[in-house]
Design goal:
219 residues; alpha+beta; Jelly Rolls; Arc Repressor Mutant, subunit A; 4-stranded antiparallel β-sheet; 8 helices; elongated; cNMP-bd_dom; Cyclic nucleotide-binding domain-containing protein; RmlC-like_jellyroll; DNA-binding
């Protein structure tokens, strides 16, 4: 767990809290670490979410499916990233998304009610946790707004370009690697994979981008 504590020190939820404080937090909040195999469900759509999860190792995906079985990739999360906090805080009875391990993964689960309710010991870290949680929820709201803006683009080319531009800005370079494979990218952009692949090829022919596998350059 020592290495995992160092990972948690970098997680936004624990910003400003020392390692010794994080260790106290895990005990006070009744944390639970679980291991998952590749493609194993962590959260199933329709279930009630009472905890937020932090990826300690591996990677997970948040997926939404409609009544017809059409699948949309909401986001992919790597080591140190958080999921489930919005639905846990909202207290909704049925979660609208599923969370799946995309490789062997370890996840730390923290009960949300233990975070938002000060314990009988009046631990000093609770105010820091609540402040960090509010900032986390605000950033998640901004992310979802950006995602809505992206998928509302009218053409496939506009969606691809908006996604690649955002990745370039995130990497501070016009040449970068994307984490998503083509199927995942199509799910994320809510477009047909074959149509997306054809458009990416056209964009390269039009000297808008260059790409090789998952490496892209915006020209």
């Amino acid at each position: 767990m020592n290495q995992e504590i160092l990972i948690l020190k970098q997680v936004s939820l624990f910003q400003g809290i020392e390692i010794s404080g994080i260790e106290d937090i895990l005990g006070c909040l009744g944390s639970n670490v679980k291991s998952y195999k590749k493609n194993q469900s962590i959260i199933s759509a329709g279930s009630k979410i009472i905890s937020l999860g932090i990826v300690l190792s591996g990677g997970v995906q948040v997926i939404r499916e409609d009544i017809l079985g059409n699948r949309m990739l909401v986001t992919s999360l790597a080591e140190g990233e958080i999921f489930g906090e919005t639905f846990a805080c909202a207290g909704i009875e049925e979660c609208p998304v599923s969370v799946i391990a995309m490789e062997p993964s370890r996840v730390l689960m923290l009960p949300i009610n233990r975070i938002v309710t000060p314990c009988s010991k009046a631990c000093s870290f609770h105010s820091s946790l609540l402040t960090n949680l509010l900032q986390l929820l605000a950033r998640k709201n901004l992310y979802l707004n950006n995602k809505m803006e992206l998928i509302s683009k009218r053409t496939i080319r506009e969606k691809i370009m908006a996604y690649l531009t955002a990745e370039a800005e995130k990497n501070h370079s016009n040449s970068f690697e994307i984490l998503l494979n083509r199927n995942e990218m199509a799910d994320y952009l809510c477009i047909d994979r074959s149509a997306m692949s054809r458009e990416i090829s056209r964009m390269q022919n039009d000297d808008i981008i260059k790409y090789h596998k998952n490496h892209f350059t915006i020209l």
